[in-house]
Amino acid sequence: MKMILAILRDETAECVSQALVSVGFRVTRIASTGGFLRRGSTTLMIGTEAEKVDEVIEIMRKTCPPSDGGQKQATLFVLNVGHFEQL
């Protein structure tokens, strides 16, 4: 099991989360702040099987391309999950 933490610009978070949910991924959205100018951002938490990580990343690439100035729209962290349980 893997946990993908994706830190996105606010303006791209909605389309990314909708694209992921539309193909069956579960997404938790958290409002966050960071960066040089403390701009608003959104952190998405996506839990998935290890073999689906590339699919998640590809969906994110397609739905949040770099901005006109070439600035990246997302920062991703892929973490190992030692234990997962739903109560």
Description:
- The protein has a single domain (2-80), classed as Alpha-Beta Plaits (2-Layer Sandwich).
- It is 28% helix and 38% strand.
- The protein has two helices and four strands; from the N terminus they run E-H-E-E-H-E.
- The protein has helices at residues 10-22, 53-63, and strands at 2-9, 27-34, 39-48, 74-80.
- It has a four-stranded antiparallel beta sheet with strand order 2-3-1-4, covered by helices on one side.
- A hairpin with a 4-residue loop joins strand 2 and strand 3 (39-48).
- The longest helix is centred in the first third of the chain and has 13 residues, at 10-22.
Q: Fill in the CATH topology.
A: Alpha-Beta Plaits
The low-pLDDT segments are: none
Provide the helix percentage.
Answer: 25-40%
Radius of gyration: 13 Å
Please tally the helical runs, counting DSSP H or I stretches of 4 or more residues: 2
Distance between the termini: 17 Å
Number of domains: 1
The general outline is globular
Largest sheet, strands/sense/barrel: 4 strands, antiparallel
The CATH class, by name, is: Alpha Beta
Mean pLDDT: 88
Q: Into which percentage range does the β-strand content fall?
A: 35-45%
Number of strands: 4
Task: For the largest sheet, list the strands in their spatial order.
Answer: 2-3-1-4
Helix and strand succession?
EHEEHE
Content-based structural category: alpha+beta
CATH architecture: 2-Layer Sandwich
This entry's quaternary arrangement is single chain
Topology of helices and strands:
Layout: E1 2-9, H1 10-22, E2 27-34, E3 39-48, H2 53-63, E4 74-80
Antiparallel strand pairs: 1-3, 1-4, 2-3
